[in-house]
Each structure stands twice: as C-alpha cells, then as structure tokens.
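Structure (tokenized):
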C-alpha cells in the first residue's frame, strides 16, 4: 500500500488501520519508525475496555491474541482457550455459547466459571444422568473435574487410578477430599538417600547382557577406568 508516495507494506494499513491521516499514528510529528506493538497506540483502548474489563482481569496487552484488524475490535476470539483452559471453539461446546459471560458470570474474576448455569445442565436431568456415579455432586468444579474436555465420553474414572473408590469412598462427594482442586493430591516428595563418596576410580567389567541392570545412580560413579564390554 502506498500513501503519500510512501510504501507502507511493512505495516499494512488495512481494516481498522486504514487511516487517511498519518498523524493518527505518528503523533510526535516524526515519521521514523514507531513501536509496532499494538499497545503502543491502543493503551487507552485497553484501559477503558469494560466488557470484559481488561485491567481487572489482567488480560494480555498483546491485542492480537483475541482481536483481528476488523474495526471496532469485533469479533474477539481467544483461540488459546481450547489448549489453555477448556475447549469452546471445538468439541461439544463449539457454538453453544455467545459471550464470555455465559460461563464466566463474575466479571471481575474469569478464573471462576459455571457449568450448571447452562439450561442443558439443569440439575434434574444431570442427576438422572449420573445415577450410580460414585462421588457425583452437582457443582461446576466437580463437572470440570470429571469432564475436563467437556465431553461425556472418556469422563474421569477414579477406579482407573491408584486410588480406586471402594467401601465408604463410593458414596463420598469429590469435594470432601478435593477441597481446593480436582487435579488430585500431590505425591509425597521422594526420599533422597546420600550416595557414598568414592575416592578411588572404579573398574567394572560387565557382560553385555548385564548392562541394563546397572542402576542409573551407580552409573554416575563408573568413571576413570570404567569398561562396559
């Protein structure tokens, strides 16, 4: 694109950037290079965005993550939502929502979400569908814990883990044990056993068939005149 005899292809002036007055961007009067980062021109747009509030929710100032060059900042799409949080542009929830606020009902905290707010997940039907499911409880955190991909297929099965639900645990609500997260308890820290200090080089000769039985920790000490043959 050429404006006033200047080839501007290095920063195409299309869509919302299709301006007629160069001073809209070159506000200092200098036509030398200016910062190409979106926020260098659109900081005020970011600061005043109210639905949702970008500052409160600590959105990135990299506008390209959600916006294209269409005028008016619309439509906005956060495609990384599928890989970073929950699939909404693919899978069973594709096309089932209109606005972020459909699931994120607290405008000041998008870390909060609701599954049960959707009319398709009314409690009566959901209770019937989960009849006999160990630990089932009707709340959004439990929904996400068992259906992290939003699908009924391949739902989390506690009995396939190292802690199968038997006895009294078959009727215990998930939230009784998972008080802060459905991601499971962290395993205990491994016990570290100090290795002996070896002052002299070691010479070890093994038959090839026995090479695989050498412990990795021991291999660290096979120095100096080490021979594996």
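Design, position by position:
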């Amino acid at each position: 694109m050429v404006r006033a005899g200047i080839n501007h292809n290095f920063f195409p002036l299309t869509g919302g950037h299709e301006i007629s007055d160069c001073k809209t961007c070159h506000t200092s009067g200098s036509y030398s290079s200016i910062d190409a980062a979106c926020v260098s021109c659109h900081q005020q747009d970011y600061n005043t965005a109210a639905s949702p509030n970008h500052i409160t929710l600590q959105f990135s100032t990299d506008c390209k993550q959600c916006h294209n060059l269409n005028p008016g900042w619309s439509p906005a799409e956060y495609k990384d939502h599928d890989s970073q949080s929950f699939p909404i542009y693919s899978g069973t929830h594709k096309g089932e929502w209109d606005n972020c606020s459909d699931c994120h009902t607290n405008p000041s905290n998008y870390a909060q979400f609701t599954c049960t707010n959707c009319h398709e997940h009314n409690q009566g039907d959901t209770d019937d569908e989960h009849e006999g499911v160990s630990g089932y409880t009707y709340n959004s955190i439990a929904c996400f814990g068992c259906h992290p991909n939003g699908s009924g297929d391949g739902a989390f099965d506690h009995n396939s883990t190292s802690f199968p639900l038997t006895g009294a645990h078959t009727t215990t609500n998930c939230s009784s044990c998972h008080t802060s997260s459905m991601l499971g308890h962290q395993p205990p820290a491994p016990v570290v056993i100090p290795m002996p200090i070896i002052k002299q080089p070691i010479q070890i000769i093994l038959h090839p068939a026995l090479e695989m039985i050498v412990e990795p920790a021991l291999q660290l000490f096979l120095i100096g005149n080490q021979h594996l043959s």
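Reviewer-requested clarification: The CA atoms of residues 141 and 182 lie 7 Å apart. The beta strands are 2-3, 6-7, 205-206, 227-228.
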